[in-house]
Fold:
Amino acid sequence: MNSDKSFSFIIFAYGPRPVKKINDMKIKITSVMVNDQDKALKFYTEMLGFVKKTEVPLGEHKWLTVVSAEEPDGVELLLEPMGFAPAKIFQKALKDAGIPLTQFYVDNIQSEYERLEKLGVKFSMKPTKMGPTTLAVFDDTCGNNIQLVQV
Structure:
């Protein structure tokens, strides 16, 4: 009987403890600068397969987000209009240098590459193995290079 009490105490003393919360920050929205929101919506939904989540008119532009069809409550991608002149310079510099603005993860990069290529998506880099990852880069038709990644 005494050993049972000791054992219970040991489990209690060394068992799971609450994890201390460090902060309350989460990534819920990230953005891609686009030179035409309507064209971007069409490309990101019809070609890439995202689904529109939010569209709120804001004068000449709108708050326009898409999400992964597999994660409708996941991170939203804001198709952000290019209303700020320095943003246009930044976007052009990245594009001209061949640098992707962002990246999307895929489970099978080769099949995704083939699917997108059949739809007419232009790739500047075909799937290329780099260490433990495989990368490909395409033009989103809205001013950006976008990188696909398979880990």
